[in-house]
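Internal tracking record. Fields below are filled automatically when a chain is submitted to the structure queue. Please do not edit lines marked as system-generated. If the sequence contains nonstandard residues, flag them in the REMARKS field before resubmitting.
Queue: standard
Priority: normal
Entity type: single polypeptide chain
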Amino acid sequence: MWNKLRRPLVLQNISVYTRYRWFCAMFRLLSLLLSLIVLSPAGAETRDPAQYFFQETFGNFQEEAELARNEGKQGVMIFFEMDSCPFCHRMKTTVLNQPEVQAYFRKHFRLFSVDIEGDLEITDFQGRTTTQKDFAFKQFQVRATPVFAFYNTDGKLVARYTGPTSGVEEMLWLGQYAAEGHYRDEPFARYKRDRRKQTARQ
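SYSTEM-GENERATED OUTPUT FOLLOWS
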């Protein structure tokens, strides 16, 4: 008798518990979707950086610097990376794939990537034959990645930034810092701090 009276209550409790679990699962899913919307620029189009950011090259950086001069650009930017670098991957999938970043950097620089572990033969800015890894390590002491290195049209290193940027805005600031010659007057950290202050006042 008692078991017969309890059965509907037990079934009801199970039903409530099931609905509760379903609600929790839906809430977590909704929270995840909202976080993705907040973290991603609204309606942002992304484009493959291999096609729209980096440019094709035969690996002769002396010629690339001369071409940058002939095209009226400020110089060459090299993205030092390696396959096992998670921060390099993050930059490619969250920043270098953004059209506004691609447009600005393509306008002002010739853009290339160098694998710091690569054995591919290249020609450096002085016309000497070397490998990617020797170019990175022996000439520019690149040990950690990513590194954004900016060279003027004479092949001289004028600015360097190690590590990923915090996002699109900071990447654009880095490009402006190099393209507009602010490296002559101040380090990037100070330039970035001033830009943040300007943005906060707007």
